[in-house]
Design a protein that fits this description.
Helix content: 40-55%
Strand content: 5-15%
Number of helices: 8
Mean pLDDT: 88
Distance between the termini: 44 Å
Number of strands: 5
Strand order of the largest sheet: 1-2-3-4-5
Structural class: alpha+beta
Largest sheet: 5 strands, antiparallel
Radius of gyration: 19 Å
Low-confidence stretches: 3-16, 217-222
């Protein structure tokens, strides 16, 4: 029994150490994003256009660092902490600004859910600016609708963090199908030269440009 108690205590300490290490990297990424706020649209663009990340991996970096381990296990190839480190490297590559040091005493006081809210408040403006630039034609780096589809998936993950996007696929020309972590489907399509969200009965629901604008000025992110 004593040995069992020792093993349980040792395991608990290891879990706490791992959590502290992850929280530290989430904090560092948040700070780095704040320091590079003006260039975040380009950072987000680079993350998407690299084409190396699943939608859940992108969500961990840009929208929901607090995501539950069990929910994401099938959709990521590395440890959660690795995606914070990858995000920091992409930010540095794009902006030449490194993550700063964190006061170690503040890590235990930090709450991961609050850090997730903070992450979304930071990336919100960047993803909105990027979408508006793509829709207006000012940004020409998104060469195909599949890339735009993934961008819309990130927007939805920030807007609805409880149902962040796990898949983004273009099934036919001009039709983007998003699937969230709870297996709900969301469809966007090009209609009359604009991008619309569509209802289940294939009727137009709302312009993407309207969603971005209303989200920027009127809705909360948690």
């Amino acid at each position: 029994m004593k040995l069992l108690c020792i093993l349980i205590s040792f395991a608990s300490v290891n879990v706490l150490v791992a959590l502290d290490a992850y929280v530290k990297q989430v904090i560092l990424t948040n700070i780095q994003m704040i320091d590079t706020k003006e260039k975040l649209p380009t950072v987000i663009q680079n993350m998407i256009l690299l084409g190396e990340f699943t939608m859940v991996e992108l969500a961990l970096m840009l929208a929901v660092p607090e995501a539950n381990d069990k929910d994401i296990a099938d959709y990521i190839e590395q440890q959660k902490i690795d995606y914070q480190l990858i995000a920091q490297e992409i930010i540095w590559f794009t902006t030449s600004i490194r993550a700063v040091k964190v006061n170690e005493g503040n890590i235990r006081k930090a709450d991961l859910n609050n850090l997730g809210i903070r992450r979304r408040s930071i990336t919100l403006e960047g993803v909105n600016k990027l979408i508006r630039a793509v829709l207006s034609g000012e940004n020409e780096y998104f060469k195909n609708f599949a890339e735009v589809c993934r961008l819309m998936g990130i927007f939805r993950s920030i807007k609805y963090p409880q149902t962040y996007i796990k898949h983004a696929e273009v099934h036919q020309i001009g039709v983007c199908l998003l699937t969230d972590i709870k297996d709900n489907g969301i469809k966007y399509s090009i209609f009359e030269d604009d991008v619309w969200e569509f209802n289940d009965n294939d009727t137009a629901k709302e312009l993407l440009s309207t969603q971005v604008q209303s989200f920027l000025f009127g809705t909360t992110i948690f």
